[in-house]
Structure formats: structure tokens, C-alpha cells
Design a protein that fits this description.
By secondary structure, the chain is mainly beta. The protein has a single domain, classed as Umud Fragment, subunit A (Ribbon). Helices cover about 5% and strands about 45% of the residues. The protein has 1 helix and 9 strands. The strands form 2 sheets. A 7-stranded antiparallel β-sheet has the order 3-4-9-5-6-7-8, with no helix packed on it. It has a two-stranded antiparallel ribbon with strand order 1-2. The radius of gyration is 16 Å and the shape is elongated.
């Protein structure tokens, strides 16, 4: 995989790939429709990262949003469904939860494609 290097006003962003924001689900976080996001291709992320996540189960759907891991609750552990510290679900959340719904994924089927490391907005 080649690295993309873009120099803007003396700053250099090194990214593995780019994606374009489509729609207004991330507007409240300052990402607008048409913004270009520079992404670091990595299979791990931490809670709150803006991530591109693929659902391998549901027709390879891809979601862009804020990543959160939900650990199994005590009642899940007591029932034997999960062990302590096990991830129960992955949530990909929009910036405006009142306007857009979060996506809930099975952690066995969720694949992190990359994490946003920069943004470019073209103003004509």
C-alpha cells in the first residue's frame, strides 16, 4: 500500500487512503458533506475515534462515524453469554444522535478499515 503525502501550507499529512464525507451525519462534529478525510489504515482504534468500519455480515456495508466498544454488562457475564471484559457490541455513532441513528455491529463481524487523521475542505 502506498502512502499519500499532501503538503498544505507547510504541513504534511501522510495517509494510507482518503474517503469523502457524504451527508450531514457528522456536521455537529465539524465534518461537512464533501470534506475529504485522510485515513490511517489500521485494524485497531480506540473509543471516540472517527473510524471507517465495515460490517462483513450485512452485504459488506461500510459506516463512517465515532467508534465505541460496549463491554458485556454484569448480567451478560452472570448468564454465561459473555466473559468479563469481552466486547458485546461495536457502535458507530453519528455526531448528531438526535437526527441520525447509531449503527450497532457484532464485534465478530466488524472490521475497522481506518481511522481519520486529517481533513481537507475545499472552498471555491
Amino acid at each position: 500500500m502506498k502512502t499519500i503525502a499532501l503538503g498544505i501550507a507547510g504541513a504534511v499529512i501522510r495517509a494510507d487512503f482518503c474517503t469523502v464525507v457524504q451527508g450531514n451525519a457528522l456536521r455537529e462534529a465539524g465534518y461537512l458533506d464533501g470534506d475529504i478525510l485522510f485515513m490511517s489504515a489500521r485494524a485497531y482504534t480506540k473509543d471516540g475515534d472517527l473510524a471507517l468500519v465495515r460490517d462483513r455480515l450485512e452485504h459488506e456495508d461500510i459506516y463512517l462515524g465515532f467508534y465505541h466498544q460496549i463491554e458485556a454488562a454484569n448480567e451478560d457475564i452472570a448468564s454465561g453469554k459473555f466473559t468479563k471484559g469481552e466486547i458485546k457490541q461495536i457502535e458507530v455513532q453519528p455526531a448528531d444522535p438526535e437526527e441520525y441513528e447509531k449503527v450497532i455491529l457484532d464485534p465478530r463481524e466488524a472490521e475497522v478499515l481506518g481511522v481519520a487523521i486529517g481533513v481537507f475542505r475545499y472552498k471555491a
